[in-house]
Amino acid sequence: MAKKKGRTPEEASVDRAAIELIGLACDLGIDTSFNRADNIIPCPIGADGLCCKNCAMGPCRLVGKVTRGVCGATAATVAARNLCRGIAVGAASHSDHGRDIAYTLLDAAEGHAPDYGVRDPYKLMEVAGYLDVPTVDEDGERRPINDIARDVALAAIGEFGRARGTLLYLKRAPEKRQKIWRELKLEPRSIDREIVDLLHRTHIGNDQDAEHLLHQALRCALGDGWGGSMLATDLSDILFGTPAPVQSQANLGVLREDMVNIVVHGHEPTLSEMIVAASLDPELNEYAKSKGAAGINLVGICCTANEVLMRQGIPLAGNFLQQELAILTGAVEEMVVDVQCIMQGVASVADEFHTDLVTTSKKVKITGATHIEFDEERAMEIAREIVKRAIDRFPERKREVRIPDVRNPLVPGFSHEYIDYALGGFYRGSFRPLNDAIVAGRIRGVVANIGCNNARIKHDSLHNYVVEQFIKNDVLVVETGCGAIASAKMGYMTPEKAFELAGPGLREVCETVGIPPVLHMGSCVDNSRILTVLSQMATEGGLGDDIADIPAVGLAPEWMSEKALSIATYCVASGAYVIMGGHNPVAGSEEVTRLIADGWEEKVGGRLEFLDDADEIVRRALAHIDKKRAALGLPEYDPSKWGRSGDGRMPELLALPLEERIEAVYGM
Ligand code: NFS
Fold first, then answer.
1. CB hemisphere CA count around 502 (13 angstroms)
2. Three-state DSSP class for residue 181
3. Measured from the CB, is residue 310 less than 6 Å from ligand 1?
């Protein structure tokens, strides 16, 4: 880490692989986000949401005696507008990703993208139902798959700018939730329209009532959760397959010294799926051997990683804060990026090594990187070109290769469809067993732990801590995004971990169903899978009739992106209690802090809080779960009732030497 009074590597991360490479960066004098965070002191006025630069009379910094901007805007208006802008950008990012997938499906259905096709026709039929696309013709005959796919793609694209009515997917929420949205006029009219409406309101001289601004933020975010993100998930499943459990590995130790290493990074599965196929091509593998490599090793970072992990089992190299560190290993021939969460810092780190940084999206160029623009019509050809470039770099490694020997196994792939199947089987898929386990108290509740890393928070420390506390307390954890990658790296996503860490009730359920105590549900747009699970739990019976009734909490302890703000807001608008870690971005306005917590709770049943203390996050989350259990009339959580059945003795037995274990089990 560069000089300055920065943190030591051990203070910057809890991840052994990251610690090793942060130390290496320090020795080599190469900057990373870790030391940049140490060297930049955040502006406290901006951090509290009190800096307004929405017009050229400012920036107005509302601090000390200054309580209003030049135009007269109050702290509440300024803080609310800043938050709203973040939510709008987050909603736009997820949703535009969804739109791009919809266009890929359209191109595939119309024969313009020959390398793509419908890989999950069952999901296509299901989605056609939601989007009112007929699957049979007037004679009752099933329509050709590509005709249905084309109409599904067109209907999906229509949702972004629908001229009238409200989003079709809202009907996937529990009836009671739909009614709340209807009565409060929160139903998004179209995905794009609510984003534009929200941005419009934040222009100088428009909406200057914090509560009114924040109301539109809820509506805009709903267009992300139940619109753009949900479509991104569904259409990706149609094109690339609905995830089911696979085996894989996580952390930088998945890089291979003897192979050509390609890292895919960003958020979209479109190109990376083709790179997966190209990396398996025998001809390209032969070419890699001709350059002295043992083959081609494809790994991922961030949510592109989660997409190809969930469907293809491609290993995870790491989460957001590990993107520069991957290059520091000296073993990465090529980093291929698409959109979102790509630090510009990767370009300067790549410059120090032989690594080829390739940008591929029409929307993203990084100065200094090679731009190979992706074109769905020539997808495989471009993927092969990209893989070949990586192979050509293999003989050019210029620094010592330092791959940390750190990796852990994981079982990802928990789509809501798979959970349904795991719990009930093919013919009677159901969430009943999950609801029953919560009703009985074997599972105390559910936590969705999601979101980013943040260079100002010790890397992975909060993710790991809260997840461990929850599973110990019999709370089932579902995860997406970089939070999921943190757990994967710790080995929490293997069923075996249930024996060691999970509380007695949760352990029994995990043993019976054969699932880990922490479920990887995908990338951040796949938080829509969590909405679907919660809706199914609410309609299954026994846990009330709305998402707000379920003993569940959403967390983003290390968040940093505007997408995380949008996710938090649509979860609140769907009835969930959401806790985000780190600094409260509206701390400068008590009024806005109250409006997003008590105000939103009165309005929609969910609340948003920012807390920076890990124990307090856990305490409040468990208190909320217990409060919801009590409201449903469920028995008080009592772990002493569980753990004596099934394989509950496994942890004790496994701790014994083999001879004694045999004796304990067989009495001989
Ligand atoms: Ni989510 Fe996924 Fe990670 Fe945060 Fe970025 S990769 S979309 S935004 S940093 S979790």
1. 35
2. helix
3. no
For 30, the domain range is: 9-46
Q: Measured from the CB, is residue 220 less than 6 Å from ligand 1?
A: no
**Strands 248-250 and 60-61, sheet pairing:** unpaired
What digits encode the pLDDT tens for the residues 101-135? Answer: 999 999 999 999 999 999 999 999 999 999 999 99
312: tokens are 């293809």
Q: Which residue stretches of the chain have pLDDT < 50?
A: 1-4, 646
Q: Is the pTM of this model over 0.85?
A: yes
Supply 197's token pair.
Answer: 């409406």
Whether 97 contacts 232, CB under 8 Å: yes
Q: How far apart are the first and last CA of the chain?
A: 57
What is the best residue among 272, 482, 521 to mutate for testing ligand 1's pocket, by most ligand atoms within 8 Å of CB? 482
How many structural domains does the chain have?
A: 4
Q: Which stretches within 224-357 are classed as H helix?
A: 229-240, 269-279, 282-290, 302-312, 323-328, 345-351
Report the C-alpha gap between 605 and 123 in whole angstroms.
Answer: 31
Ligand 1 probe mutation, 265, 341, 487, 526, most atoms within 8 A of CB: 341
Do 387 and 466 belong together in one domain? no
Query: Ligand 1: does its nearest atom lie under 6 Å from the Cβ of 557?
Result: no
Compute the distance between CA of residue 177 and CA of residue 171 in angstroms, rounded to an integer: 9
What is residue 341's predicted lDDT score, i.e. its pLDDT?
Answer: 97
**What is the signed CA dihedral for 371, 377, 378, 380, rounded to 10 degrees?**
110
Query: Is-cis flag, bond preceding 59, omega within 30?
Result: yes
Is the same domain home to 387 and 524? no
- Write down which residue in 240, 262, 285 finishes a domain: 240
pLDDT digits (tens, 9 = 90+) for 359-379: 999 999 999 999 999 999 999
Instruction: Give the DSSP per-residue string, 21-56.
Output: HHHHHHHHT---HHHHHHH-PPPHHHHTT-EE-SST
CA–CA separation, 522 and 232 (whole Å): 12
Cα 630 to middle of ligand 1, angstroms: 34
pLDDT score, position 2: 42
